[in-house]
Amino acid sequence: xxxxxxxxxxxxxxxxxxxCVSFRRERFIPKGGPDGGDGGKGGDVIMAATxxxxxLYHFSFKxxxxxxxxxxGQGSQKTGRSGEDLIIPVPVGTIVSDAETGNMLxxxxxxxxxFIAAKGGxxxxxxxRFKSSTHRTPRFAxxxxxxxxxxxxxxxxxxxxxGIIGFPNAGKSTLISVIxxxxxxxxxxxxxxxxxxxxVVKHVWGEPFVVADIPGLVEGAHxxxxxxxxxxxxxxxxxxxxxxxxxxxxxxxxxxxGYEAINHExxxxxxxxxxxxxxxxxxxxxxxxxxxxxxxxxxxxxRLPFMTISAAATLGIDVLIKTIAExxxxxxxxxxxxx
Length: 339
Known about the structure:
The chain has helices at 172-179, 228-232, 257-269, 271-274, 290-301, 317-338, and strands at residues 6-12, 45-50, 64-66, 86-91, 94-98, 104-107, 114-118, 149-156, 162-165, 197-201, 209-213, 240-246, 278-283, 306-308. By secondary structure, the chain is of the alpha/beta class. The protein has two domains: 1-156, GTP1/OBG domain (Spo0b-associated Gtp-binding Protein, Chain: A, Distorted Sandwich), CATH 2.70.210.12; 162-338, Rossmann fold (3-Layer(aba) Sandwich), CATH 3.40.50. The strands form three sheets. It has a six-stranded mixed beta sheet, sandwiched between helices. A five-stranded mixed beta sheet has the order 3-1-8-5-6, with no helix packed on it. Strands 4-2-7 form a three-stranded mixed beta sheet, with no helix packed on it. The protein starts with 5 loop residues before the first strand and ends with a helix. The relative contact order is 0.13. Mean pLDDT is 85; it is low at 184-194 and 218-229.
């Protein structure tokens, strides 16, 4: 399925039904009083977060959503039927904003959350409501209130514990396929991954965690290069970043250049991203020259801790998973103490 992380839709709630103008007409009561019922309420448009949807793909085909109108009131003081609400499912992680003002209306972070995007109009009052001691035969009723109509912008931010970041071809897709059940497309060329992949990592050191393979960043990503801003938004909700570096491509003259470039892009998009905890990992250690490159990186990195693995050869993978689990547990503990 194609991954869609932005969509524009129009939602329209139902209009209320009109009130009824009616008078009792029974045998022997030729001039009965008013008995017009109220109109029914229009249906609401309700958005609901569900894990059954993983992308905004379904909004590619349908962009206008309208709830049912309320029915008109009837004689004998019968209220019209209310219009049915319209439920729109969205993935957990969807942010809903007003397309005109840009104001955020709802941030769906949990399964089952709901948000009334457009409220149905009230039904009009029937003429029974307007009877009084001075006006015994009102021949008018209220029209129903019109429904609301809004244009909404939907954005999807993945909800993952761990985000794997790095330049294209660093081996992110291979790594997530090795440590989780995710099966992303893998190829030895840049931008194999054009959409984020999610995988659940089950292990023996604690609770499973969710990892996101964020598509390769390039220089200028924070200003939109290479779809960078669309990729960077998915990192915002992660708790830990695994910064994957292709050891073979480390520049001998500037071993830290790639590491610093990625962090520059994170800071350029949002300074809080650059401050997120990172686990630096040198990948492809099974290839010729990787050991020499790793030694140069270590000398330049100083006290910066890092790990070495080969995702393709599954070297160091268990240690990496254990380390990630321990870091997440540490972050959970720190967050609990802060509260």
